[in-house]
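Render this sequence as a predicted structure.
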Amino acid sequence: MNEHNPIAQEINKIQQHWQKATAGRQDLRLVRLIIKPEEARLYEGFCKLESSPHGQLREVFVTHLTSFDNEDTFSTAIIKDWLQTYDESAPLLQQMEAQGTPLTWDPAPYRHVAMLPPQQAQDALLLQMLSSFRAALPEQPRELVLALLPRQVSDTRSFCNWLTQLLKRGIPAGIKILVLDHVGKDYLAINDRPFPGQLLSMHIPLELEKAVQRLATSGNPNDPEIQYRKCLFEMGAALQAKDLRLLHYWGERMLECTQRSGNKGLFATAHITYAGMLFNFKRDPKILQLLEKGARIAKQGMQQHDPACLPLVIQFYGYQGAYAQIRRNFTEAIDWFIKQATTAQEHQFLPQAVTAWYSAVELTRRKDSSRYYDLLAQAYQAGVNMNDDEISSSVYCYLCSDYYDYAYTNKMQTIVQEIDEKMSRLFGRDWREELARMKKNKTRMLLQPQIMEEEEEISE
């Protein structure tokens, strides 16, 4: 790791704090790192680094991004992901054996989990697997850290309950579980009285924003991309200070430096960046001008075969829909979202397409119900070829749920069966209740700029 890299220096801070806080804590079983939301990617990088041969800590880290659906299925999901990762690590295992440090772990006793009902809790089997894996590690004594960074968490309370159940069962010696929690939220805070010495919560003071800024603006100050980033950070500071005049000043500087570059993609990006920041001031007349001009520039870039410009055009359609929604031009907004969806779909950007369809469908449900079922059907069809990971991490699961109700009412048995099988596989037998709870909590909402809905509620 490059020690002169500002991001690497922040990761080094995490490593040092970890070493100091965990040293000599033989009874420690659960470490809760309390972070700011914007630090999540940095901590994911820390965990993945420590899970690689380049890790600096004494413990052996294994990082899993397994989504948390509910406390009955999570242990089984981790075991399945663990076995898949192990099976895909044959080259690494061969390398370890060639170096004289073989991993002698036997996965066979845990493979039957794939045959068990997904709702049958396997907490004890998970702990047994972790213990056997730790015992098989070379260069003993070694400790194992299971870093859990779920891609999605359907219910933080259930996730906390799952952690508590593992502690009650007794996490084996030499094993620690690491989780991330948010500053001021305490979603995963557990009463430590029943578990003396086993819990550790810590917040590490980082300077990530400064590190990112130093990294992004290092290099040739005359480079248009460096100038763009400089303007971006200054605009962010102006936005935080709610200084519209200063925001416009740096926005215009951003347009000037990117135009000089001759790079259509960069120039269009400057327009959407500037407009996006102005969304925080709701009705600034500059927004529409930036969106219209930026879209024209991106389309010109597409004609010149700039690969960065097609995704930008799709983004511009979404922002134009959002701006129309701010102005309460709901029919126009719906049409923009449909244009965004069909363009993304045409070019096989399916997750982006279903997100745009969702925006259109939800707006018609509230503002133009005559179009609702027609758009819902199109939205459902748009995502039928998505894989399971894309479905479970996008709003398509909500579209499926709504279309299921429509299909059931209209006796469309083939569609009903198709959706039920797909959703049961991803979310369990009670998938409808699970999705209803997730939607209520807005756990997986991926809407367009969300200031629109908020403003609507205030004004109505």
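Summary. Confidence is low (pLDDT under 50) at residues 443-460. The two ends are 54 Å apart (CA to CA).
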